Structure formats: C-alpha cells, structure tokens
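Exercise (ungraded).
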Amino acid sequence: MFVDNINRRSKIPFYQQLYEILRGKIVQGDWKPGDMMPPESELIEQYQVSRNTVRQVLDLLVQEGLIYRQRGRGTFVAHPTLEQTMLRIISFTEDMQQRNFVPGTEVVSSKVITTPIEIAEKLQIAEGEELAVIERLRLADGEPMSIEKSFLVHRYCPNILRYDYALNPLRQVLEREYRIKLIHARQIIRAIMASGELAELLKIQMPSPLLFIERVSFSQDSLPVEYLEIFYRADRYSLYNELQD
Amino acid sequence: MFVDNINRRSKIPFYQQLYEILRGKIVQGDWKPGDMMPPESELIEQYQVSRNTVRQVLDLLVQEGLIYRQRGRGTFVAHPTLEQTMLRIISFTEDMQQRNFVPGTEVVSSKVITTPIEIAEKLQIAEGEELAVIERLRLADGEPMSIEKSFLVHRYCPNILRYDYALNPLRQVLEREYRIKLIHARQIIRAIMASGELAELLKIQMPSPLLFIERVSFSQDSLPVEYLEIFYRADRYSLYNELQD
C-alpha cells in the first residue's frame, strides 16, 4: 500500500520520508508531467514538516530532474524524456524545451568549402567536392549553450545557404525543400578543451572543457548527408542515460 | 547485386570503390567479427589497386571501428558492440576488450567514510551512514585510462573492503558474497577539467579535460547500492552511440 504520511515514530528522517512520498506520486503517475506541484505552504501543512524540510526535498527532486522550477510561476513535474537525446535524433529546440530553457539561434557564418579529406571519408564523398557549412551559436535562456557546425554535401541540397538559419530549422529546410529526411545517425562523444575562438563565442573563460559531439546523419536512402560538430558548454550541458544489465 | 570488383571506368575513385566493397563484406556478414582480414598483398592482387589505396581504405575502416589491427598478428573484423557501453552495464574489462586493449587495475585507496549529504541523496540513505569507498586506477595496455571511485552502502555489503580489488572484480564480489546483482543504472555524462590529483594518477598534463561519468546502480531489489564516479582520459576514451529519428 502506498504511504502518504510521515511516520513520526520512524527512525527514518522526515525529509527522507517526504522525499519517498513525493517521489512516489511522480513515479507512479499520481502527478503527471506538466502538473504544478502543491505550493510549499500546502506541503508544510499537509505533512506537518518544516519549510526547510520541504525545500530540501524539493531541491532533491529538482536535482534528480523529476521536477523543475519556473521563476514566478511555481514548480512542475518534469517530462521524463531527457535520455531521448541519447537515442533519438531531436532538434536543439526540442532538447532545450525538455530541459526547460528557451532556445535561440544566431548564425555565426555560412559558406561553401571544398571537402577536406577527414570529412570526405565520413560523408563517403570525394575529396574536393563542395560542402555547405553552417555555423550556429545556440542559446538557452539567452545565454550561449553550444556551437553547431553543420557540413552538408552541397550536391544533395544545392543553394541551401540561401535560407536564414536563425529563423529556419535546418532539418525542416532539408525536408521541405530537398525531400531529405535525416533518419539515422552515429555519434561520438568526447571531452575537449575549448579553443580561444570557441571560448569567445560561448562566453567562457580559458581554459575550459567542452562536451564535444561528432555526428554523421543519414537520409532515408542511407546516404550520409550531414557531418555535424557540436561543442557544448560543459558548465551548462550534460547527457543522461539509463543502463540495463 | 553485390559488387565485388573495381569498376575502372567509373568516375568514383578506386579507394572509395574498394572501401564500399570491403565495408559491404563486413556489414553484410560475409566477414564475421573476429575473422582475420586478407593480408594487404592479397587485396592488392585481387582488386588490382596500389598498396597506398589498400592502406587508405583499411585506415578508414579502422577509424570507423569496423576492423582493428593487432601488432604482429594481422587485421581483424571488430565486434560491433562499442555502443553497448551506452545501453548495458558492462565491466571495465569487457569495455576494454571490445576496444582491443588489455585491461589492468591498481587499487589507489580503500576506506570507510561517513556519507556526505550529496551522496546520501543519490543512494537514498541517511547522512552519516557508512560508505565503503574503493578508488581504482584502470589501465589499458599498461597505460592509465580512467579512475573509478565506488561508493557502496556499507550496510548492504559489510566488510567488503577485505577483498583485493586489483584481483577481484567488484561486481563479482557483490554477487558472490552478498547476493547483490546490479541490474539497472542511471548516469550523467559531462566534460570537466582534471584536478591536479587526477592528472597525476592518470599521467596527463594540466590543464586537460576529462570525460566524467556519475552513475547510480540499483540492485535486483531496486535498492541504490553504488554511486560511481568515473574519470576518463579524454585523449584515450570516447563514447559511441547510434540515434534514430
């Protein structure tokens, strides 16, 4: 049976009992993703615990990613979807929404280059073929979060640089204008040091580490279309996943 | 139909054609994991290409993780299992074997401490409870690869420090002596800067980045038993995974 009150005779500290109770309501679905949590005053009243205890428990649940606070609005049950970023191709916009940030994008540069050998190999094209390169600064709540450098096989999407990628999601342009849907990707995750150029764009000090993802994305025809480099600020971004035996 | 020779009239460079041919044999299973690849001389003869071309193609396949070289033995088809490290709980030993390294372990320290609040929360125990802490240096081909700090709820595995973890895998001791099987885990992946202490143990210069994993592992009874911190040398270790739309 599900316990919904504090056992005052137990040796288990109140904060831990309250933690188990509230966690249970979320995990078992009594409180659903997006639901507003009861205000602190109500939890104090209902469970007869101190404000400190309530805050400690809410802090724990925030840390665990089960709930999140929105300034001026209250505390909400989180969508348990963070680990999707490790299994599904999702856009920066979706990723930030799951993390409860407001996403933003600035285009740093866009140009056509001839393919260097390392990228030619990844995209299975000849050296010297044209690549369209789009470099975007990604913002979360107005602060730099990451830099994304997309290298696209220009032959598959001629003139793709004519669109403004501060406004248009790149994947949407690929689908709408070129009938290319990126349905599969392979990625490598590393830690690197920020170069001076990246540190400046990301507004971080030197030396700082970055979480670095290299991703090759394949179309519905299994063609490698995009090689993507993502440089995440390590102080703002981490990956989460679950493992089974 | 599957092409097994170079089209000499095609505009596609030979190296790329050979790459597609050899890759096809691996991906389609003509050559199986563990199989030895034909020697360079045989590939040169069979496909009528230069030694340079063969080497370039083999380098590409090594980079992709499809084959690996063993000094003095030859080139082999790799086991396509690297991404399991992102989905399954596997031991350091298994992980290194998949990466074709010889694993090794040195115990840096082992002691009992009282649980600090941050770890108490992760393990859902009271502050001040006893934790058994085991710090191991992990080696790959005799060179430092990572540091693992395990924090175990001592109450679940009393006297666990009496075993020598240079010789005994920790998970094996947990299963054999305490009937605890870690069957589920949650982890967070970040980039951090190496502290002086870690840099010294890992034999890297300062400043250097590390790939940092924090993992909570749960028993068959859904009890959080272990909190693990893994600090990987970023110049030697990366994670790989695949994504779907």
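Further reading is listed at the end of the chapter. For now, observe: The beta strands of chain A are 67-70, 74-77, 103-114, 130-140, 143-153, 182-193, 209-219, 224-233, 239-244. Chain A has two domains: 14-77, 82-240.
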